[in-house]
Amino acid sequence: MKQSTAFDIAVRRPITILMIVIAVCVFGFISYQKLMLTLMPDISYPSLTIRTEYSGTAPQEVETQISQPLEQQLAIVSNLERINSISRAEQSDIVMEFSWDSAMNEIAQEVREKIDRVRLPLEATRPLILRYDPTLDPIMRVGLTSEIMALDELREFVEDIIQRDLEGESGIAAVQVKGGLEEEYQVNINEHKLVSLDLNIQQVNTQLSQNNVNVPGGQLDEGETRYLIRTLNEFQSLEEIASIAIVRRDGVDIRLRDIATVERSYEEREIITSVNSVESIEVEIYKEADANIVDVARLVRNRLFGLPAQQEYMANLDPKTGKPKPKPKPKFRFGRSQGQGDQNHQRQHLRMTDFIEAKLPQGVAMDELTDQSIFIKASIDEVKNNAIVGGVIAIGVIFSFLRRLSHTLIIGITIPVSIVATFAPMYLSGLTLNIISLGGLALGIGMLVDNSIVVLESIFRCREEGDDIKTATLRGVSEVGSAVFASTLTTSAPSFPKKKPHTMLARHAHDFVSLALTLFDFVDQQHARGAPLC
Predict the structure, then answer these.
(1) What are the pLDDT digits (tens) for 368-406?
(2) What Å distances lie between residue 376 and 20, 39, 391, CA to CA?
(3) What is the largest CA-CA distance in the chain?
(4) Which of 43, 268, 281, 518 has the least C-beta neighbours within 10 A?
């Protein structure tokens, strides 16, 4: 009875239903423009890695003093399915795997509590809890090379200009610089002088750390003005480092220069990057957690290489003068001076060259190495095209069998309307457009076509029996409405359960609903024939 009432409203209030459909399409289209594009849905992998470093130890000591105590304490964490440890020289890794329905934030807190109960050696570092997250990979990587600038100068330019410029943009969480040479000051101690003066390394380290620090010095009130005082004591030159006093003996200061030499050098290199066989500086850009990869990548690309209009402007610059190529002078306009025109050209030039590539020194080249957004857009577009082609083929097959243009048009209209209507609840639920969600929409087209054919065939049969259009619609939909709902439920029911106790029901939901549908059809046929049910 409820179904008949709902169908009656849909048939007898066509204007109301039309307005509702239009409103749903409008909200769906607006939601589609706001949906984030990602390659895969957000997945929280139910695993944790507990990493502890213990310098100067062999794998056997790491296992007995670090891995085993931690593993015994962590083995009783809830929802734990598997735990194994890897003991290396100076490092212990304990990998914990949990069930997929685990609340990882609560489990991480429980793991921290368990770790705090373990008494580790004092020389060991505090255990770190690491979680793998595929979204932590850089969304873009850019390489800079130069055959003129030295690697230390190029890295300094990248850190001072490019890194600071990009970190201020919205949606960017961090910008990391790799490769090149990093400056450091080395203190090379003469061992013989150190021993002859009866000194040790610890005294030198203590004086270096105490004499190279800026500390707050309190505050000073002068009338209604309050000044914050800072004690500035950081080293400013090599001479300052060499002049610090290590100890004072017999009224004479023994300075660092007396037992060591201080020189400017570079840190030990752990990463070497190259582009086209030329050593380079690499810049990695990371997005914020809630930012759209495609939007952030587009913003970074425009900031690095400029907008299309800016690129066209740069292409028309004279390489010798760095100014726009001369154009035919316009005719003199009353009320406009030459000075105003020059100022406008200057402002336009500053605006059109306001991107990083235009600020690079001569001889420095910048190349885009990787961009996740390109692959994501290509994958999403491929799924979209497949869904569109599949819908067109489905409409063609329907027309070839039904041989009625009106029926085919009805099904052809329901497909895009239903897809657009899906975008609104997707946006409200916080879902993203990815290959999984779009693949589900493509599968939904097939279900929609099947249901449409069943309902249209039922209405057409009622029309052949002599009913008018409204009566045929109400009776035809009412007769197959329950069957269509049940057949749709057989496909969607296994996707609902998420807890382990319902796994068996999820596996056999299709069989249960199919059996109920068969019994329903049997009872309906027996009732239509007037035959007894028992």
Answers:
(1) 998 888 888 887 787 778 777 877 887 787 788 767 787
(2) 34, 5, 23
(3) 123
(4) 268
